[in-house]
Amino acid sequence: MWVYDDAITSRNFLILGGKDPGSLNNIYWDASTTGTSYHSSGSIYLNKDAPGTSVPIHEMGHNFMYNLYGSMPPSNCPNPHTIQGKSNTGCAWVEGWAEFLPLAVTYNPTYYYGSGGSLNLENTSSFQPGDSGDDVEGRVAGALWDLYDSENDGTDTRNYSFSSIYRAMWDGSKNTFSDWWSKWKSLGYDSDAKYSIQQNGINYN
Amino acid sequence: MRSIKSKRLILSLLILTLVVVVLFAVKILNRPKPDLDYALIEKMDFSGIKLLMGEPEFLALAGKGNPVAGCIGCKIYSYYPEWNITVAVSDSLGKFHKNKVVGIETEDRSYSILGVKTAMSLAEADQIMKEHGFTLSGANDHIYSKGDLNITLSDYEKDGNIDKISVYVLDKLPKDVVH
Fold this sequence. Notes:
The structure holds 2 protein chains of 2 kinds. Chain A is mostly helical. Chain A has helices at 2-16, 55-69, 89-106, 137-148, 162-170, 177-186, 194-198, and strands at 26-29, 37-39, 43-46, 81-82, 110-112, 118-120. Chain A has one domain: Neutral Protease, domain 2 (Orthogonal Bundle). Chain A is built from 7 helices and 6 strands, in the order αβββαβαββαααα. In chain A, the strands form 2 sheets. Chain A has a 3-stranded mixed beta sheet with strand order 1-3-2, with helices on one face. Chain A has a two-stranded antiparallel sheet with strand order 5-6. Chain B is of the alpha+beta class. Chain B folds into 2 domains: 1-31; 38-169, CATH 3.40.33.10. Chain B has helices at residues 2-30, 38-43, 55-62, 122-131; strands spanning 66-67, 71-72, 74-80, 85-90, 101-106, 135-137, 143-146, 149-154, 164-169, 177-178. Classes of the chains: A mainly alpha, B alpha+beta.
């Protein structure tokens, strides 16, 4: 039932944001696996640690991205990798979007892991200084959150509607957060949004 | 007449069997394998904790530690203050290294990893890494790779010296799967 709630809530949230992200076909709950995942064949696999965490909507975020783009952007994520560490710009975009979605749906900057840990993405400046840039998924998720939230911190003194953030995501497929930023500007949205992004160690013009 | 038909049938079955066996053998020979220098991995020792150690053996030795948030693809990602290391144990999604120690990170200068220690200069470490056959990926990131083995030398202070060493065995996910 909790999965159904997450699925309906997140899809409705995106529909209200201006675009139906399509349906979630198969969601499996497997108590024996220790990992959660989205398979481009159209299936989400969750495990015993997923209920009540950010993980179900994270995996749904991957599914919605696949639906909206018609394929999954090439992410090539190292396995394993950390949310705070450098991977590559493709991985950081695919995972950063999926980490931002549960925050936006619940309007809470804390990402809750299946392992019981949590990470507040309101302040990604707590990451190691070397781990900045748009090849760090936590920074991408934090930048999207700072664009959306109404809290001011550092150079993040602006907030924007979810529909504008989402529009720049779904209007044409993107392979990186930099692609998202180009789309944001081409749609005529506020270029001063770069200051909220900058708060997360990503410097765009 | 019936005998000739039987012989043809047997011959066809034999040929079919042979084709299936050859195809199966080709598939087995061509299946992806881990690209790892196991001799190097064996040399990396963190107070008895080693890469590719199985989860039960690791838990018996180290316990669950202090969980750290943030690892994607980890069943366990914990800090062990008694040894000053953070250890990552993989989840069960990878192709080759399920539920094994796949990552160890440390800022403790008492550990020597193939001759590289924290507080050592990046320039000196670079030479050692290259002698062991690693290549530098990313000019500014100090990530060294040798097959599926990655060693990251972090210089947080930007003073040219190593602040943290992270060694990771990377695993492949099945095609079209994301965490």
